[in-house]
């Protein structure tokens, strides 16, 4: 590059040119000044755009570049990197001078049509001189590569031509005599003329890869100091070269069946990958200086004897994926400097015992992906310096005590994907081992003195035991102080205790994912954490990864739940960190981290305590959250409450659930440590508060038959109670309810259902009553006596009248009613809100009697009655039981037409029961029974039979039928002054005119 300085005046004359110096934050100001001076003195003068009418010049300030555009073609120059890139996108371009004679190290040509005048003419026109490295990409030639195309390029030392269809001639490179490196990859070359490289007397590197060459003359490179030759990815079938200077040869991915390297005395490394060599002569490389051999992906099944013997410079041997079934015992004898040997991905089932006789310096041995079943204890004995051993993907079942004992410098051991069940007791006595991989085997135990032990591995850092059948960890690994990564994923761990990992000092990560973990016992975690606390082990930081879908979500994992919910001391979380995804085995795939800690209970039998009482007839559990015992006796049809309640010295209290049984009485629980008692939905009649547990906090007694709370001293009763429920009982509200009312007033703030506690058969709320309201005071004793005497005399007279009335009541009532004398006690005030006088209940098969006789007879005349009939007054589609209840409730009487059809009707019996229940509640006679036709008494319901035995009824056809019926119906006061008219009702049973 020219060194002439550029004056300030010339710089100003070319104002269209710009130079930008990229800032370098880490460079100090002194270096910036020096670089600026160099650039101003040497570079600025070169980076100029000469004026042109056909081309434009652009300056990229931030890239330190000039870009010249001539139509579709471009020239980019970067003198900071000493590179010019020429891209021809047109065949008709006429180049002009764009630079003031600059020297460039690298010139890149792309998409250009080479003319007969050659490349030199083009770059000279542009003003470019002395190019050292030239790259031609996707060029186009008119025919073969003649000498004129590359003429006068004596300065070029490296030539790279690619993606160009080349036809070589003997004179192709005469214009580049100083080439040291020639790259001709991917140019569709088919033939190599014998004299094509004759003029390249300095050529050291030649790359002819990725072409279509089928043959190479053995003397093609005679007289050329070639050191590196790349012939990969061609169509060669044989190879016999005579190049004394060649060191590096790559003939991978050809079709070579035989090769001769006897004339390559300086050959250092060779790549034979992906060829079809079947065999080679004995001691193929004996006259070479071979250091590295790479041969993979072929079918080299039979290796020749002494194949690699007596090669004292050989360091690296890679014979992979060649389907080798057997190797000669002497294959590497007397080649004592081999450092790495790979026989991976073959079909070896064993190695000769003396195979490694002279391999004392070997550091890496790869025998993976073979069919090796055993490792003879003498086989590896010579490998005293071996550091890496890969025996993965074999069929090894066991390694005995002496199999690895001589590998005193082994650091990496890979035994993955074998069938290993166990090791000899001292098989892993390899003191310098740092990485051990045993994944995908059949190991079931890590217990010392049982199958094998890892406690010899003082330097071990990584252990991979994933995908085995291990269910526990050896607690004797006390000396594994450098272990920082252990993989136990996909094994058979069901229980993990803190003791299993506490011995591992400063562990970084333990992977226990995909194990069928059921229980994680961290009960001693705090003890271990405090023992390891600062300053002794300040940086102790154990990390564990856990996942399982078999996790038991009960109290056995309560301590682990405490850990997840940050309820342990801070020192614990400095000692241990856990990342987990544990799924409960509840069928709902609940994540354990989302489970409420209070719900973690266990069966009483699991709770270990020698002082605990037995649980017999109920379901008993233990809850560690508050150290309580839960005795659930609900829904067991009990008539007697259990007297023996579960307890233990190590629990705080018991919860007793007796809900939904048939218990009528509670035993004395006063001295028991029960805090929660549920006796709801039973048949209790009374409850003695003084016999309840003193420490009771929660009491549920809703839905019983309780009428009152028995005598009690409220000052010392239930001092700790917080929750009470009492609704849906038969609480009386008379003077005997004093204790009940006082109890409710005292604990009103604790009673959860206070607004629902009412008097029996009333809507009156108990908490609104006072004792004074339910217990009226008698004024004095005299008043009581007088009233008593009066009542006695009155009762005597009333009794005599009652006897007289009892004997003649029907005749008296009928006579009075038939003479329009109203009965002294009027029902009008009681029934004034009733909508109907009577509801007639009958079978639809007796509808003729009702429609033609009863309805006209009762709704006609001077004193008609208002009747409710289901075929007339019911709402279509409404619920039948609701309509029955509504009809009975809205009628002053219910007339039952009792016949055999009625007894056979389900709805008839329902209507009777509804009317009968209403009459009982009101304590008044509301039912009128008309017997119609013949019927069997055995068909009568017990309630109906009892009713007929205790009450009178009217038979259809009776002489006084209509008088009796009207008398039984509500009496109307307005009939008092009216004259009774005759009613003639046709009666097929008794056609008599009634007056």
Automatic annotation (TrEMBL):
Family: Belongs to the Toll-like receptor family.
Keyword Repeat: yes
Annotated localization: Membrane
Lineage: Eukaryota, Metazoa, Ecdysozoa, Arthropoda, Hexapoda
InterPro entries the record matches: Leu-rich_rpt (IPR001611), Leu-rich_rpt_typical-subtyp (IPR003591), LRR_dom_sf (IPR032675), TIR_dom (IPR000157), Toll_tir_struct_dom_sf (IPR035897)
GO biological process: innate immune response; signal transduction
Domain TIR intervals: 834-969
PROSITE patterns, per database record: LRR (PS51450), TIR (PS50104)
Keyword terms of this UniProt record: Glycoprotein, Leucine-rich repeat, Membrane, Receptor, Repeat, Signal, Transmembrane, Transmembrane helix
A UniProt-annotated Pfam family: LRR_1
TM ranges: 784-805
UniProt name for this protein: TIR domain-containing protein
Organism: Aphis gossypii
Membrane topology classification: Single-pass membrane protein
Gene3D superfamilies per the UniProt record, alphabetical: Ribonuclease Inhibitor (3.80.10.10), Toll/interleukin-1 receptor homology (TIR) domain (3.40.50.10140)
Main location: membrane
Keyword Transmembrane helix: yes
């Amino acid at each position: 590059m020219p060194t002439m300085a550029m004056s300030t005046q010339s710089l100003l004359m070319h104002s269209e040119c710009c130079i930008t110096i990229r800032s370098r934050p880490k460079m100090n100001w002194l270096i910036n000044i020096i670089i600026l001076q160099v650039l101003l003195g040497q570079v600025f003068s070169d980076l100029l755009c000469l004026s042109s009418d056909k081309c434009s010049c652009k300056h990229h300030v931030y890239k330190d570049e000039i870009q010249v555009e001539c139509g579709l073609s471009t020239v980019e120059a970067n003198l900071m990197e000493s590179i010019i890139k020429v891209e021809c996108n047109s065949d008709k371009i006429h180049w002009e001078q764009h630079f003031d004679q600059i020297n460039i190290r690298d010139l890149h040509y792309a998409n250009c049509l080479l003319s007969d005048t050659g490349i030199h003419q083009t770059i000279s026109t542009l003003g470019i001189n002395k190019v050292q490295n030239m790259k031609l990409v996707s060029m186009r030639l008119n025919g073969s590569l003649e000498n004129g195309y590359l003429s006068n390029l004596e300065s070029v030392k490296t030539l790279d031509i690619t993606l160009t269809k080349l036809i070589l001639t003997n004179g192709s490179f005469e214009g580049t005599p100083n080439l040291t490196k020639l790259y001709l990859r991917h140019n569709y070359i088919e033939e190599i003329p014998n004299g094509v490289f004759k003029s390249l007397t300095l050529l050291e590197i030649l790359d002819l890869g990725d072409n279509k060459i089928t043959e190479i003359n053995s003397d093609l490179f005679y007289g050329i100091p070639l050191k590196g030759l790349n012939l990969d990815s061609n169509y060669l079938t044989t190879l016999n070269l005579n190049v004394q200077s060649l060191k590096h040869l790559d003939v991978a991915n050809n079709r070579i069946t035989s090769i001769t390297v006897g004339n390559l005395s300086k050959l250092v490394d060779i790549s034979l990958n992906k060829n079809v060599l079947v065999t080679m002569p004995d001691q193929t490389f004996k006259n070479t200086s071979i250091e590295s051999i790479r041969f993979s992906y072929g079918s080299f099944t039979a290796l020749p004897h002494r194949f690699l013997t007596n090669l004292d410079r050989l360091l690296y041997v890679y014979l992979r994926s060649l389907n080798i079934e057997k190797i000669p015992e002497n294959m590497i004898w007397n080649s004592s400097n081999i450092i790495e040997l790979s026989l991976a991905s073959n079909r070896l089932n064993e190695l000769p015992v003396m195979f490694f006789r002279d391999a004392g310096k070997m550091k890496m041995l790869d025998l993976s992906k073979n069919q090796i079943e055993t490792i003879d204890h003498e086989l590896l004995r010579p490998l005293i310096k071996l550091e890496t051993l890969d025996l993965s993907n074999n069929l090894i079942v066991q390694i005995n005590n002496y199999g690895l004992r001589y590998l005193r410098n082994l650091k990496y051991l890979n035994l993955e994907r074998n069938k290993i069940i166990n090791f000899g007791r001292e098989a892993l006595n390899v003191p310098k081992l740092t990485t051990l991989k045993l994944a995908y085997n059949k190991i079931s135990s890590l217990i010392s003195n049982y199958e094998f032990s890892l406690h010899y591995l003082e330097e071990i850092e990584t252990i991979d035991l994933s995908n085995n059948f291990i269910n526990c960890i050896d607690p004797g690994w006390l000396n594994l102080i450098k272990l920082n990564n252990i993989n136990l994923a996909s094994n058979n761990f069901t229980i993990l205790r803190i003791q299993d990992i506490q011995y591992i000092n400063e562990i970084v990560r333990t992977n226990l994912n995909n194990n069928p973990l059921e229980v994680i016992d961290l009960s001693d975690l705090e003890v271990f954490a405090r023992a390891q606390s600062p300053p002794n082990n300040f940086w102790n930081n154990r990390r564990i990864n856990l996942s399982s879908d078999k996790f038991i979500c009960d109290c056995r994992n309560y301590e682990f739940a405490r850990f997840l919910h940050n309820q342990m001391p801070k020192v614990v979380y400095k000692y241990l960190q856990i990342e987990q995804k544990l799924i409960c085995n509840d069928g709902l795939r609940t994540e354990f981290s989302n489970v409420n800690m209070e719900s973690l209970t266990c069966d009483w039998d699991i709770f270990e305590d020698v002082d605990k009482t037995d649980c017999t007839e109920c379901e008993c559990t233990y809850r560690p959250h508050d150290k309580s015992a839960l005795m659930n006796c609900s829904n067991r049809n009990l008539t007697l409450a259990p007297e023996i309640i579960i307890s233990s010295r190590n629990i705080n209290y018991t919860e007793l659930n007796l809900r939904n049984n048939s218990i009528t009485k509670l035993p004395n629980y006063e001295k028991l440590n029960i805090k929660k008692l549920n006796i709801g939905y039973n048949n209790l009649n009374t409850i003695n508060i003084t016999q309840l547990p003193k420490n009771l906090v929660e009491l549920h007694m809703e839905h019983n038959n309780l009428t009152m709370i028995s005598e009690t001293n409220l000052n010392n009763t239930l001092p700790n109670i917080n929750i009470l429920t009492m609704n849906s009982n038969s609480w009386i509200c008379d003077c005997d309810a004093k204790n009940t009312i006082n109890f409710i007033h005292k604990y009103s703030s604790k009673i959860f259902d206070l607004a629902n506690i009412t008097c029996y058969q009333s809507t009156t709320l108990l908490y609104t009553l006072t004792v004074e309201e339910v217990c009226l005071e008698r004024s004095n004793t005299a008043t009581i006596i007088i009233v008593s005497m009066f009542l006695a005399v009155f009762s005597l007279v009333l009794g005599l009248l009652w006897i007289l009335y009892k004997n003649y009541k029907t005749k008296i009532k009928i006579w009075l009613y038939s003479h329009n004398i109203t009965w002294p006690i009027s029902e009008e005030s009681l029934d004034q809100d009733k909508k109907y006088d009577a509801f007639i209940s009958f079978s639809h098969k007796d509808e003729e009697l009702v429609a033609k006789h009863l309805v006209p007879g009762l709704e006609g005349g001077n004193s008609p009655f208002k009747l409710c009939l289901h075929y007339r007054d019911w709402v279509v589609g409404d619920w039948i039981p609701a309509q029955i209840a509504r009809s009975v409730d809205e009628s002053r009487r219910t007339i039952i037409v009792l016949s055999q059809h009625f007894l056979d009707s389900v709805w008839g019996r329902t209507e009777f029961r509804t009317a009968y229940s209403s009459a009982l509640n009101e304590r008044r006679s509301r039912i009128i029974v008309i017997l119609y036709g013949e019927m069997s008494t055995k068909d009568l319901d017990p309630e109906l039979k009892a009713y007929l035995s205790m009450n009178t009824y009217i038979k259809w056809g009776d002489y006084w039928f209509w008088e009796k019926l009207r008398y039984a119906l509500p009496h109307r006061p307005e009939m008092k002054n009216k004259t009774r008219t005759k009613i003639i009702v046709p009666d097929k049973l008794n056609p008599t005119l009634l007056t």
